[in-house]
Amino acid sequence: MVVSACINITAFVLPILVLADYAAKQCGLVHERIAISVTCLGLLLAAPGLSDYLLWIQSDQVAISLSLLSCLFLVRHEASRSRTDLCLAATLAVLSVWTKQIAIAVPLAHMAYIVVIRRDLKWAYRYLGWFSIAGIVVGTLMIRFFGLDPLVYNLWIVPSGNHFKGRASVWLANPLGLLKEAGPSLIVAAILWRVADRRKPSRFDQHPSLKAVITLLLTMAVCQLPFNLLGAAKIGGGGNSFHMVVTVYVMAILCAVAAAGAWQNVIKRVHFTWMSAGAALLGAALTLIAYPVRLTPDPHLEAARILADGHHGQVYFPRNPLVTWWTEKKAYHLEYGLIDQAVAGFPVSKERYWAYLPSDLRLLVYPSRLDQGLATQLIKLGGRLEGADYVIHYVAKPRKE
Predict the structure, then answer these.
(1) Region label for 315, one of left (φ > 0), alpha (ψ between -120 and 50) or beta (otherwise)
(2) What is the pTM of this model?
(3) Rounded to a whole number, what is the distance in angstroms from the first to the last CA of the chain?
(4) What is the pLDDT, as a whole number, of residue 101?
(5) Do the beta carbons of residue 89 and residue 110 sit within 8 Å?
(6) Rg for the chain (alpha carbons), in Å?
(7) 333 Cβ partners below 8 Å, 6+ apart?
(8) Burial level of 255, CB count in 10 A (0-12/13-18/19+)?
(9) What is the structure's pLDDT at 58?
């Protein structure tokens, strides 16, 4: 858990710091680079909503990291025409799509930027070539490790089978929720863009690469919008994805760096950036005090591990099979996935259901806040024991034949 949390935090924070540092170097802010990085980190921890995403252990953070870095390499290629940068941009875009399907907006944004904004068809052909090569290589490796049928079933058949929720309120609420999350960063970005652009020559005329990366991020946010709403409007899609929220936040950070670069007085500029860093860290500290975070597993997960250690091959956690993976190195059903398949029209058969349960199943363990589910409907139970963190159901028949 600690390693997973550290990987997710690094994946989330590192590309934002790299892009901010890139913008600072483009603007010649040599003395302010550290202060700008500290400000970005502080604002990331203090920003409403973003700090919540920071410690979620899921694939979104990694996909966002790959997406942002791919944009950086694409802009670097535009300036240097380096084949390596273009290859990295295409490869990272492919990896981001494999990490999270909603990241399909990334290569679409790249092509929109190249074809519509830059109007460079030769560049588009080269990008498509590298993207195709990277896609074939990565796809071959995925098929080699996971198999073609499971990949098609889990990445296409089940998601495409999930129907829309069909309520007008869903389509209305999600754009409003997305505007609430991304709107402040978008407004700040627009104001700071105007500040950086009003001087003649403007920061963007002097540093076209900085303008290019901000334009590319804006293009990516526009491409992410329909996929955000589509994912939230379908059964199993959950709430709005935060990919677009992070993209707009990073765009605002880069506009802030450009605005700082327009400040001619170096001493005042250095003082201002360090004051901003201090204010951002103060905001982050207040947020972390109000909503404490931890890298170590929650106490209820530790209690689950102790229970699983004492009942190898006998206990099943339908809502968190990762517990038995830690203790037994065996993968059992994740109930969310079974429900998702059933909603898509592919209910699990009894044979397949029992094939991925402990061989001597005696205990079903649910979180206390959700004390029953699919497993309690399919397995005959003999009683239950309620605890502070978990509800333990005793299996009447240890094995279903």
Answers:
(1) beta
(2) 0.81
(3) 36
(4) 83
(5) yes
(6) 24
(7) 316, 318, 321, 348, 353, 356, 357
(8) buried
(9) 72
CB 91 within 8 A of CB 134: yes
d(CA 223, CA 217): 10
Rounded to whole angstroms, the Cα distance separating 356 from 339 reads 15
Residue 168's pLDDT is what?
A: 47
Q: Which residues pair with 395 in a beta bridge?
A: 381
Tell me what pLDDT residue 203 has: 62
**Torsion sign across C-alpha atoms 387, 390, 393, 399:** negative
Sign of CA dihedral 331, 336, 342, 343: negative
Q: Kindly list the averaged pLDDT for each block of 10 residues, start to end, along the chain of length 401.
A: 71 83 82 82 69 66 90 92 94 93 92 94 95 95 89 78 57 63 78 74 73 92 82 55 81 84 74 80 75 62 81 86 83 82 80 84 82 80 79 72 45
Determine contact, residues 1/235, Cβ cutoff 8 Å.
Answer: no
Partners of 363 in the beta sheet? 315, 394
Cβ neighbours for 198, distance < 8 A, ≥ 6 positions apart: 262
Give the pair of three-digit tokens for residue 265.
């007085």
* pLDDT score recorded for residue 339: 80
From CA 121, how far away is CA 112, in angstroms rounded?
11
Structure tokens at 84: 């390596």
H or E element, residue 390: strand 390-395
- Strand, coil or helix: 361: coil
Contact 351, 333 (CB under 8 A): no
Q: What is the pLDDT of residue 55?
A: 59
Residue 99: CB atoms within 10 Å: 19
Residue 393 backbone dihedrals phi, psi, to 5 degrees: -100, 130
Domain ranges across the chain:
2-290, 299-395
